[in-house]
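dumping this here before i forget
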Amino acid sequence: MRINLKKIIFIVLGLFIVILLFNIKDLNIKLIGSNTKIEEASENKELKVITQCRIISSVTVRKGDSSSDDALGKLSEGDKVDIVEDASNGWYKIKYKDGYGYILKKYAIAILDKFLFVGDSYTDLLRSTIEANASDTIIRAKSGCYPSYWLDNFDKMPNPSKVEGVCLLIGVNGMDEGYYKTNVKDTEILIKKLSNKYSNKEIYVQKVFPLGDNYPKVKHKIKLISEFNQEIQDYCKTMPNVEVIDTTEGLVDDDGYLKYHDSDGIHIKYDKYDKFFNNIGREILKGTLKK
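structure:
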């Protein structure tokens, strides 16, 4: 019997092609499955915690960054949670139970434990509120003092190892024509000294509050305060660990006057101290998330 060599070659070649196509198809299936697993792993990867915050009032945790999204549960006043993303649309993404959820930003503030607060009567009057809402705080505040007072008593500032951050509010005193330039210069020197001493910490400088509309020559004073705030803000931009924050939200009226003030027209009313403290915490949290 004569063997047809050409026919055998065609048969072998055909079988080889069939086997090759089968193996490629099988390989594609494995690759697709492998990629799917990688994608799933990426989706389930634990997000890095940016910072921790404290809740100031009962708040609903939602599945997404909208009030129409399903509720996952609630957080209570005083709870501490980890922020993993600043959604930049009024919401923070947080770690919640075994996954993630979203809360409105207005209910979250920075944890101000071990913060150093430096100031004049504004800070001194806020002392009990600070101590009630943050632990191990250090307060250096004296009613009626000028920035120069803390330059003369700078040795009273605590060791950097005891401080997590610094919050400064000083400047209302000495806001007069004859003392204005000295006040600005002394404040800048004080900020510089704080920046140097606490070089690995953040220094938050609050804008000076305006006065009540009952204060004598209030329009002229507010003009000076506005100019002061602008000069200090420009100066703070020259230092990497210093940031100006505006804690006046809800405490100043549409005409630029202090909205809730005592009879002297200088200080915030006592029943608004919690609001003031929360403003500080909210602004510092924003500053922390920018870093």
